[in-house]
Structure formats: structure tokens, C-alpha cells
Amino acid sequence: MAILKIARMGHPVLLQEAEPVADPTMPEMRRLIRDMVETMQDAGGIGLAAPQVHVPLRLFVWRAGPGASVLVNPELEPIGEETESAWEGCLSIPGLRGCVPRHRRIRWRGLDAEGQPVEGEAEGLVARVMQHETDHLDGVLYPMRMEDLSLLGFTEELARAAAVAEASVQDAAR
Ligand code: NI
Q1: What's the average model confidence in pLDDT over 71-97?
Q2: Which of 2, 63, 112, 133 could form a disulfide with 46 if both were Cys (CB 3.0 to 4.6 A apart)?
Q3: What is the pTM (predicted TM-score) of this model?
């Protein structure tokens, strides 16, 4: 196992369209998936797509409970029209957060690590993570999805601003 180097925004690998995976059970693919899970966990992320570790292939891993899941050659489809905006970060854009609109519910399909077809539905945070990671496979980073760039900022500053707002609410309530 190994911790892989994570590409940061500005690196061209993050802007290219990734290629489908031919066979996830090949030894080098198994190694890649294991290393991606370890890299994600080491970095404290909740998802990681292969292009983020300089491998332009269509797969991503995400945190699922105490472990991790993998989806290979994912295809997503929104269920309904409903969208919601929430804060996202990205291991390729360290230190920043942005408020990004996403479909609230999606249907997903692809292959698991054994190359077997899998499919399901997701909503909320899991649907958001899947949309964020699938975007990476198409060369899209979350700021490119934002509608209001005033809601992009450094995590530290946003936390400080939130704490100040919280304190003033408490003062007002006193
Ligand atoms: Ni990301």
C-alpha cells in the first residue's frame, strides 16, 4: 500500500476526460484502488477520484461508514428536478470550501471492484459526493459548478466568520 500524491487545481490531469476502466480486477487496478482508499483516509477526505492521483481512469472511492466503497465507470442520472446547495471541499483544492448546487437525488450504476454491475439510488450527502467525484472524471472541479463565487472561501476564514455570526446571535439573544 502507498499514499499517492494528490494533484492540485491547476494541474492539467484534473481538466481532462478520463478513460473507462477495462477490467478493475487486474492486479494494477486492485493496487490502485487500495492505494486510493489509503490516500483518501490519510488525507481525511470523503471521496477521491483517480484523476486526483494522476491516473486518468473512470473510478472513484468514497468513505462509507468505517470503510470505503469504490465505483468503476460510474453513470449518474438525476431523479427529479430538485437541487440543493451545500458546502464542499476537495482534496485537490486544499484549504477552501464552496457552496455548490447539486441534484438532491440520483440513480447511479457502474461496476464494483470485482467487475460486477452495481446500481442504486442515493440522496443528500452521498448523492453529492458521487456527483462531485463523477465530475472529476469529466474534468470538472466544484468551483466550475458554483453559481455564486462569493460563497467560495478559505475554510479557516469561513469558520471564523461563522463563529462571529454565532456570537452576535447569542449577544442579541441575551
Ligand atoms: Ni474533489
Answers
A1: 97
A2: 63
A3: 0.94
